[in-house]
């Protein structure tokens, strides 16, 4: 309710400012621009009043009273006053209020029916009453009109048929009207007064032209938009005034359209017709229709318009264009009241109901690093989590072995994020060790504690954080910490013992501390389901799914009879099976064989960016295949798919392209130099023998081709370039 009310107020204020701008411009454009410009310019105001979209414009925030600031600070201090709690170990039990007492306080502090609720219902009632009144008046008048309809006179009907052309509208007469008028949205009808005054054919022609103009322009739809805007913003007097101005501009622009087809003498007769009908008006208030003479008080402006009528000039048309563009830009802006209201509320602590998880971004970063198995691309994440030493020779995903949990370590009401290994298959961990602790500083997650295989942390059942560190040289230390985000380093040392200084007692105490660690219910990072990680039942697969670890690909090794399923995490080991340093360095996306479908080339490196090789991902029949390529290929890769290759013995190098086959690919050697130890005697270009000069010219043309871009293998790049 609050959001709806703020949106209505924002639209009303934005529309009022645009309406005031039009009002200020009115004296400047009144006699310079066609009347239709003023009439249709109001549509921009109606758009701003009815459509809650546009670029936000924030009002300058007023200075906050000193009293309010002190009250906010006092409220925050009462949320967690350090003087109200005794000094106790972190994580110690905190007295809890009885649920019944909490509910009672909540009911006392939060009124059942807020001020915004009352204002919303007041606005809703006003809207329903205003809209209902217009609809009821229209329905009642339409009923009376239908009961009094009569066929028009023959001469009126003949003139009408001559003027209407292809316009779908009927002509009738009624004793309920005293002036020609147009009614009916879906089935428009022009109603003439049954006891009409004696008029000449030219005057009747002008009257019918007027109503037909209303019909052709869809002015009835325009008027119902005004009714809707007036109903939604019934509390805004400027909107009601705007409705009157639009009604006047509607008649003035319609008069102008009629006058353009009349002679000066006929224009004088048209003015006399308005005078004759002005005294006879008897249309009920609230009825949405167009009439030849809407109101007597409009008559002066309309007669002045008739006397001062002139055709628009080119300068007027240019001014019209400038005015419309300027007003359109203004109409696209909407005042942002929601942000102003939100900024004035008390700050809330992390973890309150309805607030987004502040650790969501860092968890997504961990999931990305664990899925891609590219720990070097995430130096800010603890190595023990993304690249533990026991996983160097293990190519399976770490997603199901690594988990996270949220726990309030110091009882301040803000939960910390803990990460560790799940399961007990390594070192009998039993989900107890903690290798990363994040806390919130100014609402942002900060790495407070980092461990590794020789620097172990556990959370004791007493709420303390225990640590065991070993140098591997017969010296081990144990620490008992109190976690405190306010301290430098986030840890306050409560007690410390070490071996061998403290002897056997230190070992007993330290091992007892570590044994008191609780089993933390870590939530593993989500593994792809069997359906997501297999292509057996899929009709279509994508490079993205393969590269982020959500699906496997079919690896077709050299000289293999059939492919085998592999994951992206296994790719480095396919090229350097015994190296913990192999990784996917970069990737390129391009059409290698000019068939209109892109391939992905993965660049695998080892120590010092040396050795490794390339893996070509090729899509065929809805499945992704992977073909290995030697590390001496795909140098100087060009956007057309050509690249430089060489042989280690130096007896051949050149430029090649890829041609895929049923079981892999072939290298099409486009430029070749052959000999021994990089001294070439035989040269080929496009499989034809050539001279050395022609060979070198082909190389120069190859060098001028644009290079294919290579990208780091990150989730953002995968989503952006594939």
Descriptive account of the structure:
This protein has 722 residues and is α+β, with helices and mostly antiparallel strands. The chain has three domains: 118-311, no CATH class; 360-524, no CATH class; 543-721, no CATH class. 38% of the residues lie in helices and 21% in strands. It is built from 20 helices and 29 strands. Strands 19-18-23-22-21-20-29 form a seven-stranded mixed β-sheet. It has a five-stranded mixed β-sheet with strand order 2-3-5-4-6. Strands 12-11-9-8-17 form a five-stranded antiparallel β-sheet, with no helix packed on it. The protein starts with a helix and ends with a helix. Keywords: Membrane, Transmembrane, Transmembrane helix. The chain crosses the membrane at residues 6-25, 37-57, 120-141, 316-337. Residues 7-304 form the Peptidase M56 domain. This is M56 family metallopeptidase.
